[in-house]
Amino acid sequence: MQPSIDIRNVSKSYGGGTAPGGLLALDDVSLQVDQGEFLAILGPSGCGKSTLLHVVAGLTPARGELLVQGEKVTGPGLDRGVVFQDYALFPWRTVLDNVAFGLEMKKVQRHLRAALAYRYVKLVGLEGFEDRYPAQLSGGMKQRVAIARALAFDPEVLLMDEPFAALDAQTREILQTELLRIWEQTSKTILFVTHSIDEAIYLAQRVVVMTARPGRIKQIVDIDLPWPRVDSDVRSSRPFALLRHRIWELLAGEVEKAQHLASPGVPVLGRGQMATDAVAQEVV
Amino acid sequence: MRGALLRASVALGLLALWEGLPRIGLVNPNFLPPASDVARTLWRLLASGELLRHAWVSLDRILLGLAVSILVGVPLGIFMGSWKTFERTLDGPLQAGRQVSAIALFPVFILFFGIGELSKVVIIFWASVWPILLNTTIGVKTVDPVLIRSARSMSAQGATLFRKVVLPAAAPAIFTGIRLGAAYAFMVLVAAEMIGANAGLGFLVLNSQEIFKIPEMYAAIVALAAFGLGVNKLLYHLERRATVWREAGGT
């Protein structure tokens, strides 16, 4: 069976690539996501995991090859639905009209649009809120709308960029459980970016651990916890704790590296120095 | 509640001063007639229909000038907001133009367009186009990139992206620009109507002074203020109705 998402040797650099002063965000990443798989990408901040998701969404151009359902990706498309961390709802549209946006783009007929959009509003549990504006909703409800909007035009793949990071702990847990229910009902392929180890383990079938800048795949961890996870107290089970410890050990070094990268004055920024040395040598 | 009471007492106090000072002779009543005299005159002008005739002429000029401002300012602002090179190129001349007072240019307009209606519409246009242009530019330029990205992820692009995302996102700023433009239009209207006009509220103010009908002059000034306030309120309500989603706070 062909993979749902096929990422082949994707690299992404900002500001001149490997040239001095350039920033390599993704370094030769290859990854296959199976049909209907729930895959989480985990890494320290700045590791390029969001960049990878934006590349798959077609929002960021990159080197390498990218196939979704066997089709080469050249830009954004309705075969992929994206959920962003900051909701990105259109504030002038009601809940129903927000959910219908992708349907308009898909040129679905007007009278079918409302019915379809309503079905997805119901799926995310927002019946009765169709006519509200985003300003009238809580963060959790906004993210439900964003999920409904990304699903309404029936994409093959759902791409989620730290969707629950801005929510409080309780809302986050509720939405994680809801997402698993929706995943089971719709059997979409989900690529889920997060920096939370617990979230990755709870939701995913496989967790991709990434290195700090430049982003590479460090290891792919199979999450062999039982399904369904929704009704069992899987988070406090022993296998869960073991997985958490294993992934934490994989990540610990990377997080430290990422912190060095983030704070100026630490040796890593000697890069600029090295670059000037290189230029000096060339001149000589 | 206390705030409303305070506001009302300040307004009443000012009215009482206006009524009292001329009556006890502290202010020459020939230059400032008591408020009640002005009110009576205002009522008489209103009843005879004269005030409405002047107001209608003024409104006509404002609407025409403002309409041209919107037709020029909004598209140009959209263009400047979405195309950086264009904005940078035009920025210098536009900033300079903005600084030139409309009233200072009135003699120039009269020179080119004569002393009739056209030069009056042009001066109103000149005064009101700047806030419309600037607000539209800023509104289009500052559309949240998150919204653009979100729409792009659903394969919106080009004209569709513009119509469905950029324009509605910039609408509040554009409306504010139009409301400011209308306020500026009122300010220059009076000046414009003081030269070469035989009707309009500005004409009524100046003409009444010249023929020493002082209560009429104040009545016209009060009417002008009320008229401007009314138009501003109307625009404000239109704006709120069009951008109801902004006010939609709370659950």
Description:
The complex is a heterodimer of chains A (284) and B (251). In chain A, 39% of the residues lie in helices and 21% in strands. Chain A is an alpha/beta fold and 284 residues long. In chain A, a hairpin with a 2-residue loop joins strand 4 and strand 5. The longest helix of chain A is centred in the C-terminal third of the chain and has 25 residues, at 238-262. Chain A has 9 helices and 10 strands. A 6-stranded mixed beta sheet of chain A has the order 6-7-8-3-9-10, sandwiched between helices. Chain A is globular, with a radius of gyration of 20 Å. In chain B, 84% of the residues lie in helices and 0% in strands. Chain B has 251 residues and is mainly α. In chain B, helix 2 (35-48) packs across helix 10 (214-242) and helix 3 (50-82) packs antiparallel against helix 8 (158-193). Chain B is globular. The chains are: A alpha/beta (284), B mainly alpha (251). At the A-B interface, strand 6 and helix 3 of A face helix 7, helix 8 and helix 11 of B.
Order of helices and strands of chain B: HHHHHHHHHHH
Regarding quaternary structure, what we see is heterodimer
Please tell me what the overall shape of chain A is: globular
Annotation, overall tally of beta strands of chain B: 0
Rounded average pLDDT of chain A: 85
H/I helix tally of chain B: 11
Q: Main interface pair? A: A-B, 30 and 24 residues
N-to-C CA distance of chain A: 56 Å
User: What does the main sheet of chain A amount to?
Assistant: 6 strands, mixed
Helix fraction of chain B?
over 70%
In angstroms, what separates the terminal alpha carbons of chain B? 25 Å
Broad shape of chain B? globular
Our estimate of the beta-strand percent of chain A is 15-25%
Strand order of the largest sheet of chain A: 6-7-8-3-9-10
What's the pLDDT, averaged over the residues of chain B? 90
The helix count of chain A comes to: 9
- What's the alpha carbon Rg of chain A, rounded to whole Å? 20 Å
Q: How many distinct beta strands of chain A?
A: 10
Low-confidence stretches of chain A: 265-284
